Amino acid sequence: SPHYFARSFLKGSCKQQRTSLQLLSRFPRIGYSQPWVRAFRSSTSTLHSLQCLGEQNVGPDLPVCLIRCVEGEPHLTGKLSIAGKEKVFHRLQDDALETTVQRLERIAKEERKKVLAQGFKKPKKVKGKGKGRKRQMESTVEEPEGANTEHLPPPVLEDIDVWVEDSRGHRVSEDTMNKLALQDQYLLHVGDETFRMIKNVPEVNALAVEGKPMVGFQLCTDSQLLFASEHASRWEWYRLEVNEDAPDEEGGEGEDVEGKIDSKVLISTSQHYTPTGEDVGKRLMVRLTPGRVDEASGALVQGDAETFTMNRAVHQGPDMSVHEKRWQHCREFDLKKPSKLRIVSYNILADNYANTPFAVENLYRYCDQEYLQIDYRKQVFMWEILQYNAEIVCLQEVCADLYDKYIEPMMRAAGYTGIYTNKITSSRIGCATFFKSDRFSMRGFPIIADLTSEWERDEVLRSLCSGSSESAQNLHRALVRSTTVAQIITLEAKVDQDTEQGRRSRPVVVSNTHLFGNPDAPHVRLVQMASLQNMLKSHCEKLGGANWRSIPMVLCGDFNAPPQEFLHNFLTLGLVDRGHDDWGKGMIFKSLDSRKEREANWFARKTMSTEDYLRETILMSQPEVCAELEQPFVWRQACKDVPATFCTSFATQIVDYIYIAGDGLDVDSSLGSV
Question: CA-CA distance, 357 to 654, in Å (whole number)?
């Protein structure tokens, strides 16, 4: 209406004034004969200001239209502001630009129609005094003195031209597919408005910090970036002075940290941060600004920053000086020489095994429950692992979520490449192998050995499980249900280790596994290891041809086998005969389905009477499942002086091992006795 535009122009912002005259110019039915229109036209300075504003709008300060277009998704999404209201449109990526143009034309018409309608009000019936009724026109605003009081009908909207301009200033054909037409830095024209398109703005989908804030223990950020890369994003860590006594804002959800911050100090610009003594008693906050480098221009494109504030103050961590001798030994070991290689194998104890009532009440009674929590343990064992500065790290009992959110980011930040393999089970737990990225590259793809079924390929192993006896059926059931896997990875040195002799460096085959855990089942572990040896032989034959026996190999893992078990004879001597005493344990082994049954069996064996023990001894002397097994490698144990690797309330023993085989690998030193 005339009065809507008049008041908008006289009292509104410059942008509102420009919009008012732009709309007026498109509706000739209103006419420039109106007094308030003539007043605006007579103002030369105002028109000049609008012209300058229009010239500025072709520069970098143009309003933006955000385009989200992800390869593999059927639709793209656009977001822009029309007539002061944010609008979102969705189009198929492979559809023609014409569909987007038509959609934006409808949106623009609807919004401008709403703007114009705010100044008009339809006549309505009002009650008159006395007899009869009459119609009375009401205006929403007071008519200025001298204005024409005749009410005009609503203006007729003209068509709105919508088109896309490419980087060369050419109009993009409407036959072009949306995903090709809506490009970064192209211009979108909607009537008299021009938008600069920004495609796939960097986003932070999630941001968190893993771990407890303890002095000396690194905190790891867990972030999910979209259209951004970590190396182009900016990380900022702040030390906060928080007024804990300040009240929370009403209506807030949870703790209002922002309202309690008295001051903050920038302390680091790294992705991860290790708290210091100055941080004790203070809260920490990390701020992530997502970014990426534009491939065409090389410019840095950044999105909106996200912050995460830790809900606990930094406190002193545990005293790790007990390990100082080990760290000193590691520092003295010259890792700069390419002929040296350090290997670490570590069962990190999965959280779902450490915090069950059975584990807390029986296996780890000596340990305060506070220190069994994974939020505490993960920082301690990761700190220890990184201190070793090993070239190859093999981990067992790795939870997949912990690997994704904490272990892999920490190891990657320290220069490692990791491979995770889940067990053959719905539980997300498995093995992980890491190697130094600047020292090795992986040849081909990792081989996953499914030890629940691989034994079926060997005739001798298959015959052990095919009998009708109870012990044979128990063996078969245990193997199928064991969920055991092994990783086989081939690494190539990036630096030639034999440059002095002019020989090409050979690959190193690394295997990592976690064998069946029941102490009464050495025969199950032996069959699993024999299956793994068969796979290693097949792999080495393809890798080395006639010289396959000489290929350097490393075998790591939690074997759950004490040193006296016949599995070690099998590895070091290359064979096990059918008369070995460990075959007899198959007579007393029971393959139980549930955890409750296995725990009950554990208690029963701990309280076994002398009579039951003698009966089991007689049974074990007459094994029904036994065979002579051979394997082609000569394995050498690398850590012979380890006092123990496994400690519970009832047993302390060695069950974790590192074996080496082939030519070119010899043990220089071991940390077992340090």
Answer: 25
In sequence order, which ranges of 435-576 are alpha helices (DSSP H)?
459-465, 470-481, 522-544, 566-573
What tokens appear for 220 in the block? 């790891």
CA triple 368-372-377, angle to 5 deg: 125
674: Cβ–Cβ under 8 A, 6 or more apart, which residues? 325, 326, 329
Biggest CA-to-CA distance, the chain: 122
Q: How deeply is 661 buried, as exposed, middle or buried, from its count of CB atoms within 10 A (0-12, 13-18, 19+)?
A: buried
In angstroms, the CA 187 to CA 60 distance is: 11
Q: Strand 508-514 to strand 652-653: parallel, antiparallel, or no bridges (unpaired)?
A: unpaired
Query: If DSSP codes are grouped into helix, strand and coil, which group holds residue 441?
Result: strand
**Tokens encoding 426:** 């719905």
Residue whose tokens read 């993009």: 172
Residue 392: pLDDT band (50, 70, 90) is: very high
Question: Closest Cα to residue 445, out of 488, 480, 409?
Answer: 488
pLDDT tens-digit readout, 287-310: 999 999 987 778 888 998 999 999
Which of 655, 448, 616, 446 shows the shortest CA–CA distance to 531? 448
Which has the closest alpha carbon to 527: 620, 451, 588? 451
State phi, psi for 664 to the nearest 5 degrees.
Answer: 95, -5
User: Which token pair is 449?
Assistant: 């050995």
Q: Is 536 left (phi over 0), alpha (psi -120 to 50) or beta?
A: alpha
Inform me whether the pLDDT recorded for 51 exceeds 60.
no
CA distances from 308 to 237, 269, 283 (A): 10, 15, 11
The H or E element spanning position 424 is none
Task: Quickly list DSSP for 598-623.
Answer: HHHHHHHHHT--HHHHHHHHHHHTS-
- Residue recorded with tokens 């994974």: 374
As given in the structure block, the two tokens for residue 650 are 């009832």
Q: Which amino acid is at 146?
A: G
Which residue(s) pair with 268 in the sheet? 237
pTM: 0.73
Q: Is the pLDDT of residue 24 over 90?
A: no
Structure tokens at 280: 């004790």
How many residues would you count in the chain?
674
Residue with tokens 């040296």: 340
Number of helices followed by number of strands (H, E) in the chain: 18, 31
Distance separating alpha carbons of residues 621 and 608, to the nearest angstrom: 19
Q: What is the dihedral of CA 422, 424, 428, 432, to 10 degrees?
A: -20
What are the tens digits of pLDDT across the range 309-341?
998 899 998 888 878 888 888 877 765 566 788
Give the distance, in angstroms, between the CA of residue 672 and the centroid of all CA atoms in the same chain: 34
Tokens 């900016």 identify what position? 234
Would you give the DSSP letter of residue 251?
T
- CA dist 479 and 86 (Å) reads 61
Is residue 420 a contact partner of residue 398, using CB atoms and an 8 Å limit?
A: yes
Give CA torsion, residues 121, 127, 130, 133, to 10 deg.
Answer: 70
Find, among 584, 566, 582, 580, the residue nearest to 631 by Cα. Answer: 566
Structure tokens of 424?
A: 């053959």
The three-point CA angle 382-450-519 to 5° equals 70
| Structure tokens given for 581 | 């005493």
Distance CA 548, CA 79 (A): 61
| Nearest-angstrom CA–CA distance, 545 and 365 | 52
Is the pLDDT at 499 greater than 70? The verdict is no
Closest Cα to residue 433, out of 448, 453, 418?
418
